[in-house]
Design goal:
Chains A, B: It comes from Planococcus lenghuensis. Chains A, B: Pfam families: TrkH. Chains A, B: InterPro entries: Cat_transpt. Two copies of one chain form a homodimer. Chain A is mostly helical and 454 residues long. The first copy, chain A, has one domain (4-434). Helices cover 64% and strands 1% of the residues of chain A. The first copy, chain A, contains 18 helices and two strands. Chain A has helices spanning 4-10, 12-35, 48-59, 69-72, 75-103, 109-115, 123-153, 160-175, 194-208, 211-222, 236-259, 270-287, 299-311, 324-338, 353-380, 385-396, 411-426, 428-434, and strands spanning 345-346, 349-350. A two-stranded antiparallel ribbon of chain A has the order 1-2. In chain A, strand 1 (345-346) and strand 2 form a beta hairpin. In chain A, helix 2 crosses helix 3 and helix 15 (353-380) crosses helix 16. The longest helix of chain A is centred in the N-terminal third of the chain and has 31 residues, at 123-153. The first copy, chain A, is globular and about 70 Å long. Chains A and B meet through helix 5, helix 11, helix 13, helix 14 and strand 2 of A and helix 5, helix 11, helix 13, helix 14 and strand 2 of B. Bound molecules: potassium ion (K) (2 copies). One potassium ion binds at residues 61-63, 177-179, 286-288, 398-400 of chain A.
């Protein structure tokens, strides 16, 4: 009989292929769900391409839309969409975390505890336990978010039903970093409401910061540090990703404050400037919700946003892009090289050379992928370079912001964006694994020879 | 007494700093030369910024111009400019090759022979010998080029003096990949003259293919293979750079043929299409001469050209950019990773892991540098994204093509471009070395810890 857990343990390749199978299945299921006329407003007709686009956008929690969500889906449809977002966000978070744990050659005690692989349990039961823990965590965050937002929305909406529908959808959309909205205008109606924005920022960050960070923080707060762990502190991953994550939020906020000083932010009160910049900085990193039309921003700001969307969220989160750790390791590698150091030391740990090479492979592959997509779209679409580049980086970062060209893309353009959302979501690393053969230790070696670089 | 050769041998850092000292001195000298009113047409007034820009553009053999060369310099000035180009092209080629040899930890027999470091000679005499050999090679190429072009130009120009001045300048500008012209319109007057274009293509390639390739080919043709060399063949560097160099020329040609089929190349004879595409593909990689106005091209082609300019020429050549070997190693690393191989084997050799990391560091630093420059220029200049990006990649690749905004740049914009030409010319690798401390082997280690990537 086929031994699934053993198969998973011994064959890492298949573990990654799980993601593809999961996503193919999830896309088909969500196409069926979202395609049901029962969930549509009256008279809505969705083409195959637009239905596929919407399904992939929802499953990858990107939030780019070729059709207006509020004009396409009815109240029941909003719940169906929220379910798909949930499924996409949590599914990939679980699989991503699980595969990372399996791929790591030496499974550490903390990770072992995380998926409960020991003599008495199998990898499969570990996967189930992990998924349950992630599901519990995310649902708890969404529940609290829904209660807060819905109660508060009673001020905005006429009926409590409408307030709770809006609050529920907003909480799910923010926590899963989906970027979909049923207001019809993202968070622009709340551009002056700092409370709604603050709640959204917290939910967006909790979804995008990475599940291992949430787990470790939870353990820390409960005082449940692993007794076997030599160094009783947060893991290198958590420290690296948290610093990078918040560092990039600060960089994005400050750059928007500077670049838009004489433009969009001109003559605004300081708190208004701060909230516009902070919210947009947070949302470019994966959320895709916005308190303003990005077309109102100047071109330098939009280029900076392209870079922030490209970097994206933390690994093992609901977010896409090259991921924060990848970016951090690149910066550390460059810095240490420029300082003449032979190893990368950070937070009293050393980064593995293999991880350094992996990071660089992810970054350069992503750059080439996005550049190729831009060239193709420049051929097939009639738009200028900036809106096209913005769309590409938004799709790859599964951010979902747009300068407004999504619905007007040609079919080829839509399929390019669909592909980018898919790759951005499963990650370049997993994407390369799909085409990867079995890792083989070399049986023979050629002499090494150095070449002239750069 | 200060022992210069020993200092060079023991302190690699200083060997790289030589480049900076060389370039600072060379820039000042060429500013003085090019600033002499004796070399100017009557009534010409050069501002300090424009003189510095012209000097750096000439010394880095980029060819971007803020003033028209033909309207600024007289015949004597053309010779002076040719001298500066010569100096810039050969100087960096020599230093680049020399420093690479010193930096290589184990100096191979072939390299040892190249700079003649043995018991009886010092590094300094090796440097001098190397420079003499490079000088001889380049001058020979230029001499042959001048004779061919000047003789042929008798058909184009009224006097033999004019024909020889044009032929001499064209040969020097092409061989050093300078991209300067004294026709006032680059090679556009020769857009239908395949002979002139072919000669230029050969000269451009000989200048940009890298000095070690020229030396090895020379040795090979003379039958002077090093008897001590275990594997009697071309070095890994030569094989890698030659394949990449010509591969990229083919890619550029084919892409322009495809992308401009219904645009610029529409309704042209096949040979005309081929020559337009081939010449532009060759020139983007470093030459900067052009047989057409790049503004006539469509945006996808211009974006592809940006990428080709960014990659640039071979190391230890007159060219800039990230260099062909860097790009090749990146592709090999991604391919081998995707195939699940633990080492990079190519041409019966293995690439050193350190070289892989160096390549990625060069590429990512270059991308960040160019993106930062683009954001700054988008703030300071009134032009759209594409012309700005084109200018930035052209400067970094020391290519010298432009969509026509160079002369209209603000002073800040000009200094950004000056900086990029400088860094592009000395190379990111040397650039990082400038800020680099002494390389230290680690005295202590922290435990390694893996993190989640991409
Ligand atoms: K999103
Ligand atoms: K040039």
């Amino acid at each position: 009989m086929f031994n699934f857990p053993k198969f998973l343990k011994t064959n890492y390749l298949s573990a990654v292929q799980l993601i593809v199978v999961f996503y193919a299945a999830a896309t088909i299921i969500s196409m069926i769900i979202l395609g049901l006329p029962f969930f549509h407003d009256e008279g809505v007709e969705l083409s195959f391409t637009n239905l596929l686009f919407t399904a992939v956008s929802a499953i990858s929690v990107t939030g780019l839309t070729v059709v207006s969500t509020v004009d396409t889906f009815n109240a029941a449809g909003a719940f169906a969409l929220a379910f798909v977002l949930q499924f996409g966000g949590i599914g990939i978070m679980t699989l991503g975390t699980f595969i990372w744990i399996l791929l790591g050659k030496r499974i550490g005690l903390r990770e072992r505890q995380l998926i409960q692989i020991d003599q008495n349990r199998t990898a499969l039961s570990g996967l189930v336990r992990l998924m349950v823990r992630i599901l519990k965590t995310i649902l708890l965050i969404e529940l609290v978010g829904t209660i807060i937002l819905s109660t508060y929305f009673l001020n905005y909406f006429d009926t409590w039903q409408e307030a709770w529908l809006q609050g529920f959808f907003a909480a799910v959309s923010a926590t899963t970093n989906a970027g979909f909205d049923i207001t019809g205008a993202s968070l622009i109606p709340f551009a002056d409401d700092y409370f709604v924005q603050s709640v959204n920022i917290v939910l967006l960050i909790l979804g995008a910061i990475g599940f291992p960070v949430l787990i470790e923080t939870q353990d820390f707060l409960k005082g449940e540090w692993d007794a076997d762990r030599a160094n009783n502190s947060f893991s290198l991953f958590t420290q690296l990703t948290v610093i990078t994550f918040f560092g990039l939020i600060v960089v994005g906020t400050v750059l928007m404050l500077i670049l838009e000083q004489d433009a969009f932010l001109d003559d605004m009160a300081w708190h208004k400037q701060l909230f516009y910049s902070l919210f947009q900085s947070v949302t470019t990193r994966n959320g895709g919700l916005a308190t303003m039309d990005v077309n109102e921003l100047t071109e330098p700001t939009l280029i900076v946003f392209c870079m922030l969307m490209f970097i994206g969220a933390s690994p093992s989160s609901v977010g896409g892009g090259i991921r924060t750790t990848t970016f951090a390791i690149m910066l550390l590698a460059i810095y240490n090289f420029a300082r003449g150091r032979s190893s990368i030391k950070v937070f009293r740990r050393e980064v593995d050379t293999e991880d350094v090479i992996r990071s660089f492979i992810v970054i350069t592959t992503a750059v080439m992928l996005c550049m190729t997509a831009i060239v193709i779209l420049m051929v097939t679409e009639p738009f200028p370079l900036l809106p096209v580049a913005f769309e590409v980086f938004s799709a790859f970062g599964t951010t979902g912001l747009s300068m407004g060209i999504t619905a007007d893309l040609s079919p080829i353009g839509k399929y390019v964006i669909i592909f980018l959302m898919f790759v951005g979501r499963i990650g370049i690393f997993s994407f390369l694994f799909i085409v990867r053969g079995k890792v083989t230790r070399d049986k023979y070696h050629f002499p090494k020879e150095k070449v002239i670089i750069g």
